[in-house]
Amino acid sequence: MGFNYQEMMKQARAMQKQMEKIQEDLKNTEFESSSGGGAVKVIVNGDQELLSINIDKDAIDIDDTGMLEDMVMVAVNDALKQSKEEARSRLSGLTGGMGIPGF
Questions:
Q1: Strand pairing report for 50-55 and 30-35
Q2: Does residue 73 lie in a domain region?
Q3: How many alpha carbons fall within 13 Å on the CB side of residue 33?
Q4: Residue 13 resides in a domain
Q5: Domain tally for the chain?
Q6: Which of 27, 90, 92, 94 could form a disulfide with 47 if both were Cys (CB 3.0 to 4.6 A apart)?
Q7: Using 50, 70 and 90 to split pLDDT, how confident is the model at 94?
Q8: 8 found inside a domain
């Protein structure tokens, strides 16, 4: 039984199409996170793009901008982490856990 190059290429194309579909689905999936008891809310998509930031006016203290900066950073990092974990989860089923770089 010999190596079937055509079959391998067919499978590679099918996998590429599935990967593109997953990436498109992720791009259209939103991940929300908040910090400071909801004072800061952010939304990112599965393409790692920050879509929105909402800051409660009561969270703004001109004398303590550091706290607000920290709350924004925590919320953004958590939303990005959710997005990355979802991408890893969806792609691992396709790649069989091969850990393809960039995915």
A1: unpaired
A2: yes
A3: 18
A4: no
A5: 1
A6: 27
A7: confident
A8: no
Give the tokens for residue 21.
């579909």
Give mean pLDDT, residues 41-64. 95
Token pair recorded at residue 87: 């991408």
Calpha distance 103→87 (Å, rounded): 7
Cα distances from 18 to residues 4, 50, 63, 97, in angstroms, run 21, 25, 51, 15
Whether 19 is in a domain gets the answer no
The per-residue b/e assignment along 30-51, b for 16 or more CB within 10 angstroms, e otherwise, is ebebbbbeebbbbbbbbeeeee
Residue 91 pLDDT grade (very low, low, confident, very high; cuts 50, 70, 90): confident
CATH number at residue 65: 3.30.1310.10
**Which residue has 């004072």 as its token pair?**
39
User: Could you tell me what percentage of the chain is helix, strand and coil, using 3-state DSSP and rounding each to the nearest 5?
Assistant: 55, 15, 25
Spatial contact of 33 and 41, defined as CB atoms under 8 Å apart? yes
